[in-house]
């Protein structure tokens, strides 16, 4: 457990530690036992929360909250959620846009850029649409200016996708995406200092690969998002 704790930079709590230990030794240890042993060994998860910030805008197009907090999906590429979040490196800011599939929680596409603009969001959407094979997902977002733009709506129409938006001031309407941002920042971003855009890019690339391929989850029957997605396919 100490070796694993060091390897993942202390981001595992007792639940995820239990998943990894059970998988490593092919044994079903009780989570209470792992919790007790972690306390004895002085192992504790390093988790911190940071309140997200929001930008007001005048919308060009508004969609209803079609998703309506139905955060489960029976198959891949049925329901997507998306958002933009902010990071700092040195004395500058960077912005990350990502699309998450509600079926398995995997990150379908993401783009890190210097500006929070339409190009950032459109590029992320184009990359995600390029992975589709005849599916027409619903995509849910907040009412940020990129998502209410005519350009975003035009891309969705061309792909035959349904648009859904959170209600004003209701971040919980996009809860899974907000949860991912919190996880990414707590388990990677807040643990280090980033002096360059390249350092930040490398860290985000490494974490999203880890999240998709190696971060086992109880709700996915102990599998990683990609493993669960592959099994469904």
Notes on the protein architecture:
The protein is built from eight helices and five strands. It has helices at 2-7, 14-25, 31-41, 118-129, 150-159, 175-187, 197-213, 225-232, and strands at residues 79-89, 92-101, 107-113, 138-141, 162-165. The chain has a five-stranded mixed β-sheet with strand order 3-2-1-4-5, sandwiched between helices. β2 and β3 (107-113) form a beta hairpin. It starts with a helix and ends with a helix. The mean pLDDT is 92.
Task: State the main characteristics.
five-stranded mixed sheet; alpha/beta; 233 residues
Briefly summarize what is shown.
The chain has 233 residues and is of the alpha/beta class.
Low-confidence stretches: none
| Mean residue pLDDT | 92
- Strand order in the sheet with the most strands: 3-2-1-4-5
Shape, principal axes of CA atoms: globular
Tell me the helix content. 25-40%
First-last Cα distance: 33 Å
Task: Kindly state the number of beta strands.
Answer: 5
Largest sheet: 5 strands, mixed
The percent range for strand residues is 15-25%
**Tally of contiguous helical segments:** 8
């Amino acid at each position: 457990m100490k070796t694993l704790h060091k390897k993942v930079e202390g981001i595992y709590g007792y639940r995820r530690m239990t998943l990894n230990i059970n998988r490593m030794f092919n044994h079903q240890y009780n989570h209470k036992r792992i919790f007790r042993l972690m306390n004895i060994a002085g192992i504790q998860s390093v988790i911190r929360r940071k309140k997200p910030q929001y930008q007001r805008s005048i919308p060009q197009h508004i969609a209803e909250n079609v998703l309506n907090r139905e955060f489960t999906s029976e198959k891949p590429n049925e329901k997507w959620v998306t958002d933009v979040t902010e990071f700092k490196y040195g004395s500058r800011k960077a912005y990350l846009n990502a699309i998450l599939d509600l079926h398995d929680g995997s990150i379908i596409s993401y783009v890190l850029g210097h500006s929070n603009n339409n190009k950032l969001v459109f590029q992320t959407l184009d990359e995600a649409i390029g992975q589709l094979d005849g599916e027409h997902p619903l995509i849910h977002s907040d009412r940020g200016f990129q998502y209410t733009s005519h350009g975003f709506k035009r891309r969705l129409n061309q792909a035959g996708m349904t648009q859904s938006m959170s209600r004003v001031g209701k971040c919980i309407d996009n809860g899974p995406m907000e949860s991912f941002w919190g996880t990414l920042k707590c388990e990677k971003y807040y643990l280090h200092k980033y002096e360059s855009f390249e350092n930040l890019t490398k860290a985000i690339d490494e974490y999203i690969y880890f999240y998709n391929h190696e971060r086992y989850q109880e709700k996915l029957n102990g599998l990683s998002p990609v493993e669960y997605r592959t099994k469904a396919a």
